[in-house]
Amino acid sequence: MELTPDATPGSRPGVLFLCTHNAGRSQMAAAFVRHLAGDRVDVWSGGSDPADEVNPVAAEVMREVGIEMGDRRPRRWSDDAVRRADIVVTMGCGDACPVYPGKRYVDWDLADPAGRPIDEVRVIRDEIERRVRALLEALGVDPAD
Fold first, then answer.
1. Residue stretches of the chain with pLDDT short of 70
2. How high is the pLDDT of residue 145?
3. Is residue 112 situated within a structural domain?
4. Residue 143 lies in a domain
5. Residue 97 catalytic?
6. Is-catalytic flag, 25?
7. Which of 49, 89, 96, 134 is the most buried (most CB within 10 A)?
8. Is 98 a catalytic residue?
9. What is the CATH number of the domain that holds 41?
10. Does pTM surpass 0.85?
């Protein structure tokens, strides 16, 4: 995976995760980046049609791996976050995801955890973690364990 950001030398790469409701996939991905990379990566998440709250099952499966998302709230993506991001990762928002010329886009085809039983959401969580680790490695950021 070749994803070297266009960030200036010495600056942190920025990653924006987008999905429809910003309640599950994008929240979990951003939480994994914060957990694994700390302040070495700027990270944002947003949705095209934000939900009222983070998916409680998604929050529960993240707690199982020691990551708390209870303080996070779904938000609409912002033009500022898209402009600041070096890489935009989309997850099922289709045509509603913003497309800016010159930005690097990666689409992660992942099932939406909404309405799924906890065992299925764990599988989605684990796949998101695998992809986040690969993304961080491609960015030259060693994921902390």
1. 1-10, 94, 145
2. 59
3. yes
4. no
5. yes
6. no
7. 89
8. no
9. 3.40.50.2300
10. yes
